[in-house]
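Problem 12. The chain below contains 439 residues. Write out its predicted structure in C-alpha cell notation.
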Amino acid sequence: MRKVFLWLILSLLSGGGVVIYALQQQYEEQSVNYRILYREITVKVSQLETILSLLSVTSDPAAVRQQFPQILAWEPKLNLAPHQTLTPAAKGTYWLENQRNALLIDFNLLLADIPQRHDFLHISLNRQNRTVFELGNNSQPAYWQWNKEVNSSLQPFELSASNDPDWADLPWLILLLLSVFWAVLIHFISLYRKQKHQHNIAVLREHYSELTRLNTMGEITAGIIHELNQPLTAVLSYNQTALRLIEQQQAEKAAALLDSSVIQIKRISTLLQQFRQKLVDAPVVYQDVNLHKVWLHVTMLLEDEINNSNVKVVNRLPEKLPTLRADPLWVEQIIQNIVANAIQAQQNNPPGSSWVAIDASYSEQGIELVITDGGPGLSAQALRQVFIPFFTTREEGLGLGMALTETLVQRLNGNIKAENRLGQGACFTLWFPFNSREV
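Solution.
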C-alpha cells in the first residue's frame, strides 16, 4: 500500500508539472495569436479611418466598395456634425462617421482574411460596455481571457478573446511513460532493498550461526551428556535383564530386550552425529526424506518423555505423502524440537488430556506440515519472540532450540509460523518446497 501511495504521489507531482508546462506553452502560443489578431485589427481599423478622411464628393462609391468589401455603404453627410461618432448597427456592422461622410462597416468581412480568428473560442469588440461584434460561443466561461483596447481615435474598441486549452494536445504519452517509469523505479528500488535486506539477514545469520556454534558448545555438551545418560541407562538395564534371563534359561525372552538396546544405541549414534554437525561445518548431503519414517523415529526417540507425560501421539500424515529432498537429520531435528516443546508445555495438564498431532498436505510446489498440541498455547510475548535467540519460558533453557529450528527450516528454503488455535494449544505450520537448496 505504501508503494502504491508513493507511486501515486510521484506520478501526480511529475504529471502535474508536465501538464502545467504544456498548458503554459499553449497559453504562450495563444497569446502570440491574440497579439497578431490585435495588430491586424488595429491596422484595418486605422485603414478605415484613413479611407474615411480621404473620401470626397468625387469618389466613386462602387470602386471604394470593390477595393474594400468590408465597407457595405457610403453616405455623404449633408448635416455637418460638430463631432465624430461611431454608431453600432445590426449583425456585426456599425456606422463610422466624420463631419462629411459615414461608412457602414461589416466587421465579419473585415476579419475574413485574418486566419487567427479561428484560433479562439470567442472574439468580441465592445464599446462602452456594448457589444459591437461577436464571433464564436460565449455560453460558458473560458479558461483563458485576453482584453486590450484598440488604439484608435474614431474606433476605440476593446478587443476581447477567450479560449480553452486543447486537452487532446496534452502529452498524454509522456504522462503514461512517467507513471510507468515511477512504477518501474519503485519496483526496482524495492527489489534492491529487499535483496539487500535478505543479504544482510543472510550475513547476520551466518555470523550468528558461527557465534552460536562457539557460544553454545558448553550448553550442547551438557545437553548431549544429559541425552546420552538416558539411553545408556536404558541399554544397561536392558542388557542386565537379558543376562539374567539367559542365566535363567529364558533366552527367548531376551531377544526383545536386546532389540530395544540396539534402538537406544542407534539413538546415541544419532545424537553424536547431530553434535558433530553442530560443531563442524561439514557439507550437507540431501536425500529423499520419508516424513512417515521421520515422525516414527522422532516419537521413538522421545518415547520415554511421551510415556512419562502420558501424551497421546496422533499421526494424520497422508499415506501417499511424497518424499522431501532434504537432510534427514535437519528435518528430524526440526520436528523433534517442536514435539519436545509440546510435551514440555503439557506437564501441568490433567491426566489423559495431553496430546500432540501432526497433519500434512502437499501441492506441486511443496509440503505443508502442521504440528498441534493440547497445551495452554503460547503467551502473547512468546508468539512475538518464539524464534528470537535466547528467549525461553523455561528456567533451565537457553532459548536456542526454536531459533535453530527456524534456521534449519530457512536453510531448506522453507518457512515456519507459530500461532495458537482455540481449544488446541500451540500450532506450528511448516512449509518445505520440493526443490530445496541449502541457503
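Discussion. The longest helix spans residues 2-54. Students who got a different answer should revisit the alignment rule from Section 12.3.
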